[in-house]
Structures are given as C-alpha cells and as structure tokens.
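Batch manifest line 726
LIGAND: DGJ
JOB: complex structure
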Amino acid sequence: MSIHFDEKTGRLTLSTAHSCYQMKADEDGFLWHLYYGKSAGAQDFSYQYVRSDVGFSGQPYERKADRSFSLDTIPQEYPSFGVGDYRLSGLEVTNADGSRCADFRYVSHEIRPDKYTLPGLPSSYGEAETLVVTLREVASPLLLRLYYGVFEEADVITRAAEVVNEGEGTIVLDRVSSASLDLPFGKWDLVHFYGRHCMERQFGRAPIGHYITEISSGRGASSHQHNPFVILCDREANEDLGDCYGMMLAYSGNFEAKAERDQMDSVRLTMGVASKGFSWNLAPGESFFTPEAILCHAEGFTELSHRYHRFIRHNVTRGKWHLAHRPVLVNSWEAAYFDLEEERLVTLAKEAAELGIELFVLDDGWFQHRKDDNAGLGDWFCTPDRLPNGLSSLISRVRATGLAFGIWIEPEMVNEDSDLYRAHPDWVLSVPGRKPTVGRNQLVLDFSRKEVVDAIFEAIAKLIRENEISYIKWDMNRSLADVYSRVLPVEKQGEVGHRYVLGVYDLLNRLTSTFPDVLFEGCAGGGGRFDAGMLSYVPQIWCSDDSDAIPRLRIQHGTSFGYPVSTMGAHVSAVPNHQTGRTTPLDTRGVVAMSGAFGYELDLAKLSKAEKEEIREQVRTFKQDEELIHGGLYYRLNNPFHKEGYVAWEFVSEDRGKALVSLVVDVVQANTIPLHIRLKGLDPEAVYRIEEDEGKYTGAALMYGGYSFPRVLGDYPSVQLHLERV
Ligand code: DGJ
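JOB STATUS: finished
ARTIFACT:
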C-alpha cells in the first residue's frame, strides 16, 4: 500500500521507495500540504507548523477568533483565488453570479488500486495506486477532484485536477493548475530549460526571489523557448547532492510554471495550462480535466534525471517501439531538401543499406506542389510534379535495397496554395475581418473541430494504408496565432488553444492505435514540442534543427535533465554544417548523434570511401552499444554551460557491468591542462577493462581518483571509452 489514511488524524500519506508526500484536512476542511521530500517513516509533519499571530494576513470567517490561522500563510494542497490567499493560486474561477472566489473544503477521499486516466489527455500508466481527494466549494456548485498517481517503485507522484459544475449556470474557469506545491522551508533555485529555434533546452538556474517567476509558452506548442519541465532545487544542490523536486507537465500546448517566494519565505510552485488567453465555460454537468503533472523528489540532479528517464521510458512512452531497437535511419532533408529526384533518393538508400543503415526517411517535399515550402501542405498525396513514377515506385525501390521506408508529414498545417485550403478556407485558425498571421507561409488548421481532425486522419490513414510505410515523422513548423475558431460561440473562444491540443492528441491517438507497427517521431521545427505529452504517443522527437555536433552538446545536455536519450532524435549531418558553417570530424558527429535516437542526414553518395567505412563502423558501434545507451543510466560528467573546454558524459548499464564514456573537446588549447575526469556510477569493488587503452582499473579508482584522457588535438576531437567489468 503506497497510500495510507490515518483515521485518527485524517492524515493522508503517499509513499514511494524513497519519498513521502503528506496532506491533511483540518476540522474546517482546509486541505494542508504537510510535506514532500525524502522518506521519513510514519511521521506526522503537522508539528513543523508553529503558529503565531498572523492577523494581518486575514482569516476565514469561522476562524476569526484564531489569528494564528491564515490561508495566506499555511501550506496548501491546491490553493484558490479570492478568499484570502494572496499568493499564486491553483484555481481561478468566475462563478455564475460573477463573483471571482473559490473556497474548497475537503469532503472525502478514495483510494484506488490502479492508475487514473484523463479523458482526452495523455496520462502515464503502469503499476500505481490512485488517490482521489474530493473538495466542494462553500457557496458555488463546484466540485474539485484532486488526482494523485503513486508510482511506488519509480519514485514518482503524478497529479491532475478535475473541476465539476454541479449547478445550473455556467461557471468560467480562468485558470486551472495541474498541481501546486508548497515548500514552506528552505532556500530554492529554479532550474529551467530555455532557448529558441536551433537552440532548445539550454540549462538555466536562478534563485527564487520575492517575486513571481514565470516559465511559460503562449505559442500553442510547448515551444522552443521554454520547456514544461522545471526543477526546484536546494541552493547548494548539484549533480550528486541536495534536494531536487522535478515538475513536468505532460502537455504540448500553452503552459505555465510559476514560482513565488512569499512574505514568510515559503516557496510555491504551480504548473498547468497557461492562463493567458485561456478561459473555459463549464456548463452545468460538465467536467474539466487538467493535464497531468509528473512530480519527483530526488537527491541531486543525476538521481532525479535517472528517475525521470526510467519513468518516461516505462510509464509514459508506449507501444511496440518504446523499448525496442530503433532503426538507424537516413533522412533526406539535409541530404536533398526539396530536390527529390527518384534516382538520387534510391542512390541514397542503396548507399545507406551498404553501411548498415536500416530505415530511409523521405522528408518534406514529396506531396502535391511541394517544390518549396510555400505550397502543398494539406494535400497528403504524391503527384507526378513531385515524383513522376509515383511514391509507390520509390518505396518499392527503397525497400528492395533492404531498408524500411518512412515519410514526413505536417498534419496540423495547410498552405493557401493547396486543394485542401481551396475546398475549406474556413478550416484554419483565423479571425473574420483580420488577415491571419503566417509562419513559414503556412496557416494552422483548426484542430478544435472534429471534422477537421477526421479529414486529416482519413488522409494520413489512406497514405499509410496504400503504401508500405514503417515510420512517420510528424512535424509542426509554426506557432499558433489568431487562435479563433469559426464554429465556436464568442464566449468559447478562450477554449480554442486547449481544444486544439486535444485535437492533436485525438489524431495522435487514432493514428498510433490504428497503425501500431509504425514508428512515429515527433518534430516541431526541431525540438519545439519536446514534452511528455507528445512522448505519450511517440517514443522519439527530433531534438533540434541544429544538427551541428557542438551546439548539440548543450541542447542534448539540457534535454537530458528530464528526458532519456532514447527520446532524442540525433543525426550525423554534413560539414560544413548547414546551420552554423562549422566543420567537425565525422568521429565527433557520430559520438554526439549516437547518444540519442541515432541516424544520418547527409548525402552519403558524396562521401569518400574512408568516410563510408567510418560510418559503417559507427553504425556497428551504435548497434552494439544501443542497449547500454538507451537502457543504461546516463551521467553528465560536467556542465557544458560552465565552459570547461570539453563536455563529457557516461552511460552505465543497470548491473554496472558495462560503461561507455564519451568526451568532446570544444576548445582545444596548446600546452593544455590534463583532461582528468572522475567517472560515475561504477561498482567500486569491481575491476573494469578499458577497451581503448587495454588497461584495468578498479571502479573505485576511476570514480574517486579519476581517469586521465589522452591528449587530443585538432578541431573538436572526441574520445570514447568502453568499459567492461572483468
Ligand atoms: C523542420 C524539421 O525540423 C526538419 O527536420 C525538416 O523536416 C523540415 N521541417 C522540413 O520542412
């Protein structure tokens, strides 16, 4: 039993292998958050809250004689707006009478032996128990259900909320968080992952001050700029030490994470669908479900990442491919862009087959009128203007080389120059009387409408049914604007952003369940929608449109805090690199790309014999090490944002029998300081043989003493070390 209710005190304790979460409703039904952190036995944590006069903070009416109680100072499980808590709120509503306050009190709770699900939204799965706490608003006919999924072994607690209108008038939800977490004591930093197109998920860390810090997206997708994953960590925390609390939202649209340090130095973190541009009309009898927040407590960043990695691999991603060998692919984009000539593509496939590559991906450009990125989106069929012999000829010739065939789509978008748009100009998000904002000369389909999603499903399903397609790359290349649906009434326009995401999930769900054998990869102009929502449907996502191995070091490093490397699409591309103009050795490009869902994206026919030989060797190495890389424990050996001149990371098998250390030197110096690094995660008692230097070392020596890397020279050299327990 991971959920325990203490009848005497009303205390609810959620226990995972190494953490404990506690709450309690008091005699008036206020739901206190008592503790979240390292396991601490059956302790009742109420003792921590020493009462003093907080009269100036305000009291609920029935507590007017008790000036030591204020909603503004107690830690709460799910705070709401308008009744005396002036900090961040979880919930903000406009009641049927126009009042804007909500005061929820505990009614009951239920413990279920399995994991809850969320209608229309992705949610994690696996062995877990569910706690549902029901609260009722004191005056308005609203019910609030708080859901907790307790994954004991995985050390994860998931949360979501449901608001139910039991009345006869519409109630407007202005903000509904998935989770709120109060940390009453301590000094905390916020770790977040910021960036831009071609520079996603850069590591950011800042102290939480006496103001509200917001990490959010209003772009309709989780975005290149911010990621729906944040860590609250002890100000002293590092990879190995210090309390770390992760909060990750399984959601792919507008989100917000807000953190505030209040007058009493208590810190509150809330996370959920972004409130900017959002309002939801909850009609009588209706329910609104929030997306799921995935919470984890750990000691140090490494342990936190390990828990998230395992959880994403085993409890978020699903289907045939999530733990399976991922085919090494070659993608046509940086190899040919829109220059898709059948002979050229077949040559690429033949070259790839000879090097051990397993999957050919025909990227953008294959469908009607798509000679560049100004036309064609929406028409998911191939015409002779693009491939004179048709798609089927290309597919059968590619498959004859021994490679599987994959294809690119961008199902949420449409060009004005397309049959689809000409037939249904009202199917796009746009406001009557205004010219729509364009992005890459394309418009966004109104996925809040079922008939639009139905039509796209039919088109893509036909494409897959009529062709031997083993893989789909699902792209999304612009942010949403003019978020307005032609079919919803005025008062429901604030729902369009969220309804759009529900439409995306509906299509993902339908396609992945209708075609369970197809491997889907997510993409949004690179890594603009890299989140646990997408990962509930696709096991891998193209990590960034910057394929240069050097900036990739930082992108993949930042991504690794929350997401396992098996989810990060990473390819070896040509030099000079198309995004940066930089030239890096093939070896280094291989080392970086094989720390992900591995592939190639360059014209193989242009390579020398020696380069092809090297690629053959890379593919062989990846296949040999894939289990260790994708299924092992990932250790960041340093932080590329600290500019030490090198970046190193390590994979260790779960049984600690094998390890792979990768190092890339990004600033080479003359007369350099020795590159000496302490390895991690090894068995201290064991003796390991390093294949590359044929030496034998104890795990203790390598971890506590360290390893001196050979001096490497040249532009961006790299080293890999294979360790095996003897
Ligand atoms: C953006 C993606 O990230 C690229 O890999 C490529 O698929 C292009 N779109 C195609 O338009």
